[in-house]
Design goal:
2 copies of one chain form a homodimer. In chain A, 42% of the residues lie in helices and 12% in strands. Chain A is of the alpha/beta class. The first copy, chain A, has an 8-stranded mixed sheet, sandwiched between helices. At the A-B interface, strand 4 and helix 3 of A face strand 4 and helix 3 of B.
């Protein structure tokens, strides 16, 4: 398989990798998110993974950057790429339940509420405007923006956003067995709220049932003057769909082949409906001799913290697939 | 008078203007700081001025960006320069009592405590390390860093740091009449705490009696790979003195002629002792026909939010003194 399918034609001299960290209280509902050792601890995962990427290890808490099955967090992939490319990532705090341990560009938002019971992102409009101002700043200091996200539970909010905007979407999951029934139950309740509340405008739908990452990412993409690559799976499709709903240009999306190949989702189909060009990265984790990375191939984790887009960035910067794979393996072995 | 005295030899293609916002609880002691309509409200001034620079106006609270005497905040000078140069500033939250209204790169610090009674910056070491990581990130995205600060009450903490590090300093003030006696009283108490607590290492002295801006600015300057200009008055001399005390290179400092000419301070002398090269900007505010700006010449405000360094940056980017002055006048008239 080719390392990259559908590569964008982008030259860059000043690339920047950013990741938006946020929480939705949906992630503490048991069974919704696999991004943490317990539902309550999913709220901490973005903070710990940012610390891993920024510092090379997690020292603030006694946690390991693996799933219980030994699958390395996608943040370790992003860390490996930052080291390989000599880049310092920028983290954006879009609304977290706990205080980050590394500096973040903070929007001073709040975690998303549970969209079954109340408006999930009351400040959606303000967050979009803050995203716009961040996009202008980032455009001052870079010519290519690879924009990732880390929102445990975010595939469920993205399901609601995509459906709410009229797309017949099935979203992916960090679990091998996608908890489709639970997500559909959430959507069933949210659909009624959307209908009865008369939410129509795209940002109103985000207010009703999204998470804080979505309006911030859309605001950044709306004003960033260079090339933007939304780095993520179905969650970034909800950002692209929001932009399209607002009659704004739809950016490039980059993700892993593991998201594309998820039989419980329909990523490529929805991307086609939105009109997002997509780049898929196939890092060939099955042939590296690492049992944890090989689990990505059977559908565990799949993506996160912009790992797919980060690998694409390394490739755009001229690193060979072998160099990229070896660096990831080296980084992941460092935690063993 | 020349617009710039002692200009650095710097060429820049990717300049970045940053300002570190922080509080010290010293500013709520009546009479210490003139940076706000009341002692309690000095805690809000950095947030309001950041909003003014980022948004062009203050809409979050019914406050005017002037002193009670009609002297425009130095933030309006910085705003004018950002517009003139087409730059988006980056604000760093070094530890504020209230939540900012615009996005900030947040170090997740706390306001400095009153150094008369307890350690002012218990996290000084951690903030220095966070500054180091921010400096590396900023070096990824720029080649010249103009680093300002906004810490109401910060001339008093800087007095303590400079004296604690062995410099016979007299510091400046935003008041026309520098409250020298009050500052000396603070120093008298702090001196005893320093002596009795056995504080020796430079970062320990900051922990005892500094404010959060000082270790963050020093950490940034320690790792930033391009040219750094510390934009500020005596407060930036305390950062330079800390760096020198840690055997790290001493950066360039830029400030206004109003700080140099403050007869209650000895800025140039202390800069010479530290070994900081200094650039002084004389914007000639007395000849612009604006009574509020003219008050800078009689010693009110003098400097703040990196205004001196911002004017130097515009000049380094090729803007003429007349263009710079006219832009400032235009911006200040916009609030009238």
């Amino acid at each position: 398989m080719a390392f990259v399918t559908g590569s964008p034609e982008i030259r860059t001299e000043r690339p920047l990798f950013c990741s938006i960290l946020a929480n939705t209280l949906l992630s503490v509902v048991p069974g919704i998110s696999g991004a943490g050792p317990s539902p309550e601890k999913t709220l901490l995962t973005p903070i710990l993974d940012a610390e891993l990427i920024a510092c090379g290890k997690i020292s603030s808490m006694p946690m390991r950057p693996d799933t219980p099955t030994g699958c390395p967090t996608p943040a370790s992939i992003t860390r490996a790429i930052m080291e390989l490319c000599g880049l310092s990532p920028l983290f954006i705090n879009g609304g977290l339940a706990h205080t980050p341990t590394v500096p973040c560009l903070d929007t001073y938002g709040s975690p998303g509420e549970d969209p079954r019971f109340r408006d999930a992102v009351p400040a959606a409009g303000a967050l979009f405007r803050k995203g716009r101002s961040i996009g202008m700043f980032l455009g001052n200091v870079s010519d290519l923006l690879v924009l990732g996200e880390w929102v445990p539970g975010g595939t469920t909010t993205s399901l609601c956003i995509l459906r709410g905007l009229g797309y017949d979407a099935l979203v992916s999951s960090s679990y091998v067995r996608n908890p489709v029934r639970m997500k559909e139950e959430v959507w069933g309740i949210v659909e009624r709220r959307l209908r009865e509340g008369g939410y129509r405008a795209p940002l109103d739908i985000v207010r009703c049932c999204g998470d804080p990452m979505i309006p911030i990412a859309a605001g950044i993409a709306a004003t960033y003057p260079g090339s933007v690559i939304l780095a993520g799976g179905t969650q970034m499709l909800s950002v692209a769909a929001l932009l399209k709903g607002m009659n704004l240009p739809v950016p490039f999306v980059a993700t892993t082949c593991y998201v594309r190949d998820d039989p419980s989702a329909n990523f490529a189909e929805v991307a086609g409906m939105i009109g997002s060009p997509v780049s898929y990265v196939d890092p060939g984790f099955g042939e590296l001799g690492h049992s944890g990375l090989a689990r990505y191939c059977i559908g565990e984790v799949k993506e996160g913290m912009g790992a797919g887009g980060a690998m694409l960035l390394a490739w755009l910067m001229g690193h060979s697939p072998d160099t990229i794979r070896n660096r990831i393996l080296h980084t992941v072995h460092g935690y063993a």
